[in-house]
Amino acid sequence: MKGDFKLADFGQDDDLWNGANNRPLFQKVEICWRPPVAIENDGSLSIDNEEDIYQNGYLYSIVRNHHSQATKDKIAYIGITNDLKKRFRNHPKVDEIRGLQGQASISVGVITTPGRRPNGTDRVLIREELEHILIWVLWEDLWNDRKCLVVPGHGKNGGRAYDITNTGFTFSGRMPRRIVYPWAAIIPRRNNTAR
Length: 195
Prior knowledge:
- By secondary structure, the protein is α+β, with helices and mostly antiparallel strands.
- The protein is built from four helices and ten strands; from the N terminus they run ββββαββααβαβββ.
């Protein structure tokens, strides 16, 4: 694999491919993060063309900004939902985040999986696995209660190996450019969060 990764020795010298099947060991995924939009007091969002973003559920990140913070674009929560229009009208954790001083906004991650149908039933499980991996990698500043201390892929449904590329909105360098899981090796962005 090309890049600046340092990966654990898993017993072969070639790239991250399964030589016997000539298929990649890691499912390639791209998450394109949309620019954040404010969450209104009633929980509504001003997102246009919501259906174009994703037809079978959403992966999202709640972002906080406050003038007295030492950093900007702080990722506060990672989640998934089937309905962006209703989700934040009664979401205790997001209500708690929104109740703090400063602005709470949401960035929606558009998931692309080369070689797979974009909105099949397989995508629901991929979305849940990606949420868990992101929570596990970004745990330090998150308000998430669940999935923070459980290694992804060790639940009842197991999990797959992923090569995740994050594009679009960068959260001022907080969102890793690339995540390889199960090793969770990353190529970090330049950290631009200091004001």
